[in-house]
Amino acid sequence: MIELRNVYKYFDDTVAVDDVSLSVPKGKFCALVGTSGCGKSTTLRMINRLLAHSEGEILLDEQAISDYDPVLLRRRIGYVIQNTGLFPHWNVARNIGLVPRLLKWPASQVRQRVEELMQLLGLPVGEFANKYPHQLSGGQAQRVGVARALAADPDILLMDEPFGALDPITREKLQEMLMQLQARLHKTIVFVTHDMDEALRLADHLVVMRAGKVIQQGTPLSLLQKPADAFVDSLLGGLERGLKQASLTRVKDHMAPLGPTLPAQSRIPARYTLRQALSMMLRDHSERLTVVDQHDMPVGELSLRKLVKEAHSSEQGSSRES
Ligand SMILES: Nc1ncnc2c1ncn2[C@@H]1O[C@H](COP(=O)(O)OP(=O)(O)OP(=O)(O)O)[C@@H](O)[C@H]1O
After folding, report:
1. Whose CA is nearest to atom 4 of ligand 1?
2. CATH fold of 249-321, please?
3. What family is reported (predicted)?
4. What is the pTM of this model?
């Protein structure tokens, strides 16, 4: 568990981080988003003490980070940055094994761990172990960066725009890889990004910052349903907000039992998103879809009218709560 309580960071006259409080429970994925210079990276770097905070408290598992030995603290925390920070004259295997070697693991154990991680990250050992960073594509180098951060099995990962320099297709692949890794490893992750779609896709908890302050935080769906102000609304895509919300919602959570009327012609698997369902409705000129299970058996139906009604009542509900 990572907790920041009323944290400030000053650089001379600049207030880079201004009264930030947030907590990331164990095994959860927190994304920090906001425009350039709003204090995301500074917030991240204070967690592993690359930067000292000026005021407030930062706690790991309820213990102040100032009580930890900084070297031991950083070994508990994997750190991944945009330009990978790989050593150019070391091959991939040596780069990945850096922290275990510093920890004086026996050579055979380091080798085993490196090979295990390369496999986990889709980097075949025979092909990549002896390559140097300049021989890798951006996506491959970033996989090596993630493998290196995971080498000593830290419980926390801090990731600063890790996929920022990649083309959109590679970026999406690495997001997918990270989601799969997270489903297996359950690390506590704080992830900085400019890309709201990346944050919406990956995060359990979203923190929107502006000028050093946290403007709003919560689950991606809660922010999409009720952005705190026009700035958050525009970051979340303005008019596109409805479709983004639909991308995060599954058909199975909105289907109704099969009715007495004839099933609709178009069929959609229950695991698909509402965005895909809406697209199918538009494509097939149909306000109703039959929902099917993995064996293509009808299990329910989805109606556009009901979806619109539900969206309306959930907005009413969330405005009553706030
Ligand atoms: N070492 C430093 N010395 C002085 N000012 C700094 C330093 N590091 C950051 N700042 C300032 O602190 C503020 C926050 O910077 P930070 O890098 O945390 O923002 P960011 O949200 O991560 O930006 P970006 O998305 O562009 O990386 C900025 O005004 C920046 O100029």
Report:
1. 11
2. CBS domain Like (3.90.1280)
3. Belongs to the ABC transporter superfamily.
4. 0.86
